[in-house]
Amino acid sequence: MPTSAPLLVMRDIEKRFQGVHALAKASLEVQPAEIMALVGQNGAGKSTLIKVLTGAYGRDAGSIDFSGRPIAFASPQEAQRGGISTIYQEINLVPFRSVTENIFLGRERRRFGLLDWSRMNAEAADLLRRFDIAIDVRRPLMDYSTAIQQMVAIARAVSFKAQLVIMDEPTSSLDEREVEVLFDVMRRLRAEGVAVVFITHRLDELYQVCDRVTVMRDGRTIATRPMAEVDKLHLIAAMLGRDVEAVRGHATGFTAAAGPAGDEVLSAEGLRIGRRVRDSRLDVRAGQIVGLAGLLGSGRTETARAIFGADPPDAGSIRLMGKAITPREPADAIAMGVGYCSEDRKADGIVPDMSVRENLTLAILPRLVAMGVVDEGRQRAIVEKFMKRLAIKASGPEQKIRELSGGNQQKVLLARWLCADPKLLILDEPTRGIDVGAKAEIQSLIRELADQGLGVLMISSELEEIVEGADRVFVLSDGRTVADLPHAQASARAIMAAMAHEDAAATGEVARG
Amino acid sequence: MADAPSLTRGRAGPDVAAFFRRYAALAALIVLLAFNFAVTPHFVSLQTLNVNLTQVATIVIVSVGMTLVIATGGIDLSVGSLMAIAGALAPLIFLSPFGVAHPALGDLLAFVLPVAVVGLLGAFNGWFITRFQVQPIVGTLVMFIAGRGIGQVLTNGNLQVFHNPTFQFIGLGRVLGVPFQVIVMLVIVGLAAWTVRRTLFGRHILAVGGNERAARLAGVPVARVKRWVYAISGLCAGLAGLVVVSINSSSDANLVGLGMELDAIAAVAVGGTPFTGGQASVIGTLIGALLIQLLRYTLLANGVPDAAALVVKGVIIAGAVWSQQRGRTA
Amino acid sequence: MSLESAVPAGPARPGAIAWAAQQRVLIALAALIAFGALRYDHFLGAYNVLSVLRYNSMFALTSLGMAFVIMTAGIDLSVGTTAACASVVSALLSSYGLVPGLLGGLGVGVAVGAINGFMVTRMRILPFIATLAGMLMASGTGLLLAHNQSVSVSYDTAFIWLGQGDVLGFPVPAWIALAAYVYGSVVLNFTSFGRYVLAVGGGEDASRLMGLPVDRVVFWTYVQSGVFAGLAGVILAAQFGAGQPAEGVGWELFSIAAVVVGGTLLTGGVGSVATTLAGVLLLGLIFNVLNFENGLGWISLSAYWQSVVRGVFLMAVVMAGSGAARRALRTA
Known about the structure:
Chain B: It is found in: Cell membrane. The complex is a heterotrimer of chains A (513), B (330) and C (332). Chain A has 18 helices and 24 strands.
């Protein structure tokens, strides 16, 4: 890379939330006219680092120099005026309004005191033409594909004379062709001297467009390398904090399975769901923990929701407890003995204003009812049993669930299904956002339940959890099941290799047409 | 940070400020009562009590249904119009040739049919809202506009005057000196409070309003629950309509229940049920309605014109909701 | 690589569907007028046209203010009682002349609107509750000032011209409403304020991130709604010769219905001034057509059918629109 003065230097950034380090010694250096990839797992601190840069958060320590001057922006708008524009994952534009408006909102062009639409339309069209985009700028933004909307967001950003454009997972909802277009725009920006920081979970993309890559983990910057000098396997290893060759000791609360697996409780084949999932398959037996691994966006959650009936699949077959059934509503799956803990506790799990007791028994409530009246004696007995068994820390069954810590909320949600005595439990990121102690507890509990005959399908981004916990591992990549590994073969290396398998899968797609 | 553990708040002993905010409406009611004992002439009499309770009964009955609707995150603007329909139907039935020929059956049908019809119209509201995913405001606005028209068409806009002691017992009768509609009101409040607290349906209402997505993933039949609360709101409105026409000994579809939707919403708001859904305080609604009623009575009894009482009512509603919001977000 | 290839040109144009919904209103209005003109002798006669315009001008004004508020995803329940209160104040002031009467009515609107706006933007009370409170305050104030009776307008000044006068053969209230809609159209389409109204309603967080003065925009939409309601109150007083403190009940919900029929989404972000006027006229003409139909003597439907027809009409509009809106949101 050129040796000219860097455009951006962030050094030793620290950021604490309620005493917990979100960033510790994080750094980022970007050259002018360079595309820098920023990668890391969820919670590695990428977004926090960006928010510190753009002034959405203040920083507790460290220095930021931009264009050779120290800066401290108070808000993203101020950063934008200072030459740093951010494009968020969810497009922060107004979909009902026209393309022109979305570009000019807040700094309209006027003539005789009134808006000068012809000038604004012309300028907007000119701006987009720079990216080879020829669209009718007077039409509402939502008439266009996500890719175009993304371009409009970029055009708006660039029109603020940005020297640095930050793109936070812009490709997560784009298809391959749209991604190509986006990359074109990024290269064009680089050619015009604009620097880009590109955050993505799809590693293949990095190699297509990025000059260098910065890897973050646990709030620290682990490495910065020219893209050409790291292969994908080493990149994944760096992100996950695993040595490619060595396998570390026991890191989770999981132990080995107690006995052989029983009857099949779930089998899914050829699932196709929307854009994300093209061909996923898996099966789970009683007493077995099946791990579902894959990078973000590989279609893990979509697969789980389809099995549970939350978003029925477009194609494919599902067998539950040996019966061919495709649930259309969660209630159907629940009636078959399936439970599902979603990855987003807040949006899909807890009913915040209800008590621990209410939340815990929400799914089995119909069974605790006589003549429409809830048998509170039985309800209380169940709640007490599970609060004790899962060591749920709350002031009592009547405490509101939103007042509990993340780990305890998760235990309540686990208990919600356990008390229904399910045959299959789907756990989507069961330990995300949970402190270390509670994590090990939950992990050993999952093992214990499986040993008692429960079939578990566990989605996790944490390799340890999959490697040590799962009796069988399915790996998803780009919406396809690309590997099916028994416990003995499910090493970190093998799983990572399967995740990195994307190229082959993509080729397969082309061949299939 | 999103999952910031805040065990302390739930555990810390009685938080005085929170306690006060939670029971602000009740406290205000007690203060107002005390004020009246001290100041208002002839306040301490059975007469005063009966007057106030009689006036508030219909509002409370409607507000109970409204509370359940609001607890699911919805709203029902059609209650006043539904009252007019029920109020128009009942006299039509017992004044009809059939009703006159078979008074006993006619009176029975005059109770049952209007309430049932209006309940069905409420269920229609729920169906419309869930089937077409219409916002509850618009969904029930349809019935607000069409409903009064239906009542007017049924009676051709005419005033129906009647004298039917059996039927009018619901509005004029007394049991042990207590006006019958007050008993109806108390039964409905009790039933609803019990339903919310103890039954499956009640818990499902709160789950739907508290987090619809989570409720669905836990197997709660979201659409069915919503249809039922609008049906119940309709049933309550129907009952209230019968009470009103009984008291008046006449039914005027142009006037019965006019503006009731906003009175009921005000009672629910002052009673502390948040409009975001997920919580329902039926007793709070009763207190809210009583507070609004007593406030008006107090002002009137002390020589303040009715119009000024309206202004005070507006201030009270805004103040109550504002303080409750602060209480919740603090 | 060219970008056009990435644009899914074709039928999936939710914006166009929303646009079509607005066009449908105009088409429906044109159809209803054509139907009336062909079927009834005096439908387009001067008397009928002028009385329809004179009467509906008040609803047109409250609906215009309401449309702006709804475009920000808010709602204003106070428009009816604000008009009533304004009619009282302007009637009381009418003996001082046209201008004091007019300003008095507008002043009431500004005051109520500012209180509403304050409650919504500063106290963070939901618009529905805040304006419910504002509605009660305006109603009570009007009744207080009028001592619960209608207040006769002074016939010594030019005040009644505002309600009963004609200019170029058209009633003054119609001119006022027309001017208001021209103003509204210009503001919505050719000023930053208008664009911010739509932006705030279409995405409040996005608007904040873009640095738009969200709270200020919302506040002024409530003040503006108050002003139009006040103007409607002035016309009310001048047209009927009296300030009417008990009028205005239900105007707010009628206005909401007109705005919804006009294709403005209650969720905010999409709206049009012209089609709001079409919505008002459509709902108003249903009554008119019903009268004419009875006049023909073929059927005899009471005037009360108008509410039923309006309700069913609103339902049909909502059902037709719900598909479009849902498709739009899914794609967005």
